[in-house]
Every structure is written in structure tokens, then in C-alpha cells.
Amino acid sequence: MADQNNVGSTGEQEVPKPKEEIIKEALRIEQSTMIVAKSHFIYAQFWSAFHLWLGIPTTILAAGVASALIKADKSGVAIFVSTLVPALTAVATFLNPIKKASDHLKAGNAYLALNDKTRIFRTIDCWGADSVNVLTKRLKDLAEEKSKLNRESPQPPAWTYEAAKRGIKKGEADFDVDQNRDLPA
Length: 185
Description:
The chain is mostly helical. It is about 70% helix and about 0% strand. It is built from five helices and no strands. The chain has helices at about 15-70, 75-95, 95-125, 130-150, 160-170. Helix 1 (about 15-70) packs antiparallel against helix 2, helix 1 runs antiparallel to helix 3 (about 95-125) and helix 3 runs antiparallel to helix 4 (about 130-150). The protein is elongated and about 85 Å long.
């Protein structure tokens, strides 16, 4: 049985039920923002790679066509490649992979920043002297910030969300300090 100061028989501080619920909700925001941040990072990486996969061959083919035309090569290869280069350039312009990569990287960083703020709120602020009402207001502000990010950020595809969850389960988002491991020197 706990006394008036919420100290249990083992000497550990008991968490009042409303504060416990605030902490649980903060954990939900943390988990969600970590997965979504990682999902955006995966998709940003995809679009960066796509840009290279499209851009490098296009550049090489354009140089090859220019060389063939300079040599006045009228072969079918030069004609084919000379039509392929503008097509690849049009695809790159239409898809704009660099902008997509940048937008998803920016969104991932915004979700990660919210994740950090929420973790600090949960692990430090919730254990201070603030009242449940103050903590509830701050939690609602964090939840609203997450909702705003959800509305304003580009939507990564479902496969990136699943890949992010798998990566997190494998420990890709873990910190040594949270695993009671020695910190790197």
C-alpha cells in the first residue's frame, strides 16, 4: 500500500493512473513517429537511387549519341539511343526523383524531431513536478504536431512502412544507452 507521497513498499515511486496514461500515449507517439520517420528515410533513399539509376545511363547514352553523330554514324543504334535519351530525360523530369527524395528526407527529419521531443517529454518532463493538466496539454500539443505532419507530409508507400518496422525490430533504431551496453569511445 502506498503512502501519501505515492511511494510504494519497495521505495519506488508509484505513477498515478492519469500520468501513466499520459506516458503510454507518449510512447504511442514515439513508436509511430519512429516508424514513419524511418519509412520516409527509406523512400528518400529509394528516390535518390532512382535518380542515379536513371541519370547515369541517360548521361552515358547522351554522350554516346553525341559521339556517334559527330562521327556521322547512321546506324540503327545511334538512332535508337538518340530517341531513348529524350525519353529517359522526360521520365526524369516528370518523376522528379530529387525533389521526391528531398521531400521525404525533410518529412523524415521532422518526424524524427517530434520523436525526440516526445521521448524527452516522456522520460524527463513527465517525472517532474508539473501537474497532470500541464502534462496533458503538452501531450495534446505533441499529438497535434504529429497530426499536422501527417497532413502536410508526402505519403510514403506501404512497403516502406513495413520495411521500417522490420528494421526497427532488428534494432536499427536502438541506442546503446537504452540497451545497457557500454557507450562507444
